[in-house]
Amino acid sequence: MRTANLGGRLVLVQGGRALDVASASGGAYGPDPQAVFDDWDGFRKWADSADFRAAEPFRSEDLGPPVPRPGQVFAIGVNYREHADESGYSADSRPVVFTKYRSCLTGPVAEVTLRGDRCDWEVELVVVIGRPAVEVPAADAWSYVAGVTVGQDISDRALQLDGERPQFSLGKSWPGFGPTGPVLVTPDELADPDDLALGCTLRGEVLQSSRTSRMIYGVPRLVEYLSAHCALAPGDLVFTGTPSGVGNARVPRRYLAAGDVLVSTVEGIGELRTTFVAPSV
């Protein structure tokens, strides 16, 4: 199953066409893309037999973030060995966790205002929680996942790293610094949800290219670890970390500039297209 946020309304997506859920379900499920997580298991059962004859074509430009108002947005740092190496971090005995504030979220086709001259890219697989999760063992973790989507953890390195100690969350939460989409894809749609190709390009140049199987802590371990320390709720997001190739680790360092178009992809899900503009004077 694939869901999306089309103009603020929950839709099912199939073959490039979108079915409005509120209309197709006769009001059994409302139009709010966030509210559906309150009964995700019931919604999945209804969606399995949904009639797509009323589905219509749509434009990617009209899509918003699949999960527009998550209660919590977790993010994982240095979760690929190559990225840890390029960033100068030694192996950690547990996942590095911070947060992106939900006010940064935007859709898959977005124009984002740069903040300063040290803004960086980080393509990521984003996990959406589908059931209340407390102390979930890794072996059961995927059953607590509603789906996955593509994310960009855009990062203001100046705000993040300047000073005596890193300040991750604020530097990653400017408006628009959390593109997600284009759709939420349930794990059963993917041949192997633990091994997906992901990457991003800038002006056609490949900046990042890896596979989620190269994570230090895969999705099951992350759900286990996070749920051992706090309660995860349906609709929460987990940005699972980025592979190597970020601008701050390049020699010379390289950052986003006004006019850049960043295209981010995850196998089996789709792409984000983010255009960057300079701040208005």
From TrEMBL:
Keyword Thylakoid listed: no
Which GO MF terms are attached to this record?
hydrolase activity
Pfam families for the chain:
FAA_hydrolase
Q: Where is the Fumarylacetoacetase-like C-terminal domain?
A: 73-276
User: What UniProt keywords apply to this chain's record, in alphabetical order?
Assistant: Hydrolase, Metal-binding
Which family does the UniProt entry place this protein in? Belongs to the FAH family.
The molecule here is called: Fumarylacetoacetate hydrolase family protein
**Gene3D superfamilies per the UniProt record, alphabetical:** Fumarylacetoacetase-like, C-terminal domain
Transmembrane annotation, as ranges: none
